[in-house]
Amino acid sequence: MKTPLIAPSLLSADFGNLERDIRMLNQSNCDWFHLDVMDGVFVPNISFGFPVMQAMARVAEKPLDVHLMIVQPEKYIAKVKELGARIMNVHQEATVHLHRLLVQIRKEGMLAGVTLNPSTPICMIENILEEADVVMLMSVNPGFAGQSFIEHTVEKVRQLREAIDRRNLKTLIEIDGGVCRDNARRLVDAGVDVLVAGSAVFKAANPAEEIDILKGA
Q: Which SS3 state, helix, strand or coil, does residue 210 take?
């Protein structure tokens, strides 16, 4: 059985003690740092921008997975690259020329990620799967941390895994929203490679131990 990658979402960290929380994750067995960027336009909330992410990047010792929940993400490829990000993840629903955008991200040396909202079917990205290094499925409606997991996402993961395997691709499947120890095993069994966990990690009595539990899924 494969071991999933764990990407704690810093949106759920204690922003009054952000450096402390990042250093804690540096010492944990997590694999990526997941950074949720919200603009108040594409999603009904605002999170943090590049000055805060630059401060995060100076402390973080693991790859940055930058998830842009914003309109016109193509305008920020260079700035995400400057952060030293390993993955730039954009929403299918937020850009008109998705193929071009994924190609541009790869040209900058980053992994190209595409994200689907809960209501967006897998068929919307079947023509660009070859250009995507990561496909992330939202298992909550994006914009706020701490929401409940949407159950039909498990079947959506199976559909995506079948589409990837049918083409013999190495595209990773990432899941974001309401992920916890209660559903992690089902998600990994369905085909997920990367678990994004925010509240499950940062609200745990022992976040590093919770990460280990999720990896054991």
A: helix
Q: Is 14 a catalytic residue?
A: no
**Tokens, residue 96:** 């008109």
Q: Is 36 a catalytic residue?
A: yes
pLDDT of residue 144: 73
Selected catalytic residue, list 21, 36, 133, 193 = 36
Please check whether residue 149 is in contact with residue 178, taking contact to mean a CB–CB distance below 8 angstroms: yes
Q: What is the DSSP string of 76-142?
A: GHHHHHHTT-SEEEEEGGG-S-HHHHHHHHHHTTSEEEEEE-TTS-GGGGGGGGGG-SEEEEESS-T
Q: pTM of this prediction?
A: 0.96
Cβ–Cβ under 8 Å, residues 30 and 212: no
